[in-house]
Design brief:
α10 packs parallel to α11. The chain has 12 helices and 9 strands. It has a single domain, classed as TIM Barrel (Alpha-Beta Barrel), CATH 3.20.20. The longest helix has 11 residues. By secondary structure, it is of the alpha/beta class. The protein starts with a helix and ends in a 6-residue tail after the last helix. 33% of the residues lie in helices and 16% in strands. The protein is globular and about 55 Å long. An 8-stranded parallel beta barrel has the order 1-2-4-5-6-7-8-9, surrounded by 6 helices. The protein binds SN-glycerol-3-phosphate and magnesium ion. The site of SN-glycerol-3-phosphate (G3P) has 10 residues, from β2.
Length: 281
């Protein structure tokens, strides 16, 4: 078993999807902090490269949904604001938190779960660097499922894996990071460059044919299918054959429990605070 999974040798661990994104703006350090204090056992986040080659944590390929870029006149000519065309310095000028207050994507502001006293901190969020998140992971001993977003069509496509691994080594987080991707070629590159780092194949839409053979050939440690295309029988079959299975995105407690009973190692959820009790101190 890869060292990452030694601490996840059982079933039913809780992974906070993009941080605790139902109570803080996704993929911000505030969301990661909330994930930790919610009691989540690990968190998931998405890495991409900026135009000048910095690795930052951001989900979409464009900046509009989760920043205030559409309101910044300095950038009005650059719509639809592809992330890969912006430098890190430019990205740092964006507010990556206020959108959450404006759109209340999970209704947690209306319900009072996100109190007004938190708004100042939410408005202050910026797009984080992977390096800073890794430093925090190590400091808090808080594991991370790092999803490498598909960089096809950008300069980073051929460099992002080695950059990620370099940062993991620099921050000595080899045992704390599980790398996943929908672009499975990246996972092969991880194995070629550092076989101690655990990897997971993300899949949506449909399972690959001859699934177990496919995963074994890819030499991944875990399978991360969309829960919408997955049933408990498949989880049972794969886990019985020694393949770890982690589902996303499961927000229903009953469904999470049924995947856990079938042998799933962890459940990636937008609501970690509902699936696990708060961390003490
Ligand atoms: O890693 C699970 C999940 O994050 C994959 O989908 O679109 O939320 O990054 P997405
Ligand atoms: Mg993701």
């Amino acid at each position: 078993m890869k060292p990452f999974f030694e601490r996840f040798s059982g079933t039913g661990y809780v992974c906070a999807h993009r941080g605790a994104r139902s109570i803080a703006p996704e993929n911000t350090r505030l969301a990661f902090e909330k994930a930790y204090f919610s009691g989540a056992h690990l968190y998931e986040t998405d890495v991409q490269a900026t135009a000048d080659g910095e690795l930052i944590l951001f989900h979409d390929h464009t900046l509009e949904r989760t920043t205030d870029i559409s309101m910044q006149s300095a950038f009005s000519e650059r719509s639809p604001w592809p992330l890969a065309e912006f430098t890190y310095a430019e990205l740092q000028s964006l507010d990556a938190g206020s959108w959450f207050i404006g759109s209340d994507p999970f209704g947690t502001i209306a319900s009072g779960d996100v109190p007004k006293e938190h708004f100042r901190s939410i408005r202050g969020q910026r797009i984080p660097l992977l390096r800073d998140a890794l430093i925090d992971c190590r400091h808090y001993d808080f594991p991370l499922n790092l999803e490498i977003k598909d960089q096809t069509g950008t300069a980073a496509d051929t460099t992002i894996v080695s950059q990620v691994i370099e940062l993991i080594k620099q921050t000595q987080t080899e045992l704390l990071v599980l790398i996943s991707s929908f672009k499975h070629a990246y996972l092969r590159q991880v194995k070629e460059q550092d076989a101690t780092i655990a990897t997971a194949a993300l899949v949506e839409g449909a399972h690959p044919e001859s699934l177990l053979s496919y995963l074994r050939d890819l030499d991944v440690d875990a399978y991360h299918p969309d829960q919408l295309i997955t049933d408990t029988a498949l989880v049972q079959q794969l886990t019985k054959n020694g393949m770890k299975v982690n589902l996303w995105t499961v927000n229903d407690l009953e469904r999470a429990n049924s995947f856990t009973a079938a042998g799933a190692t962890f459940i990636c959820t937008d609501w970690p605070q509902r699936l696990v009790g708060p961390r003490q101190s």
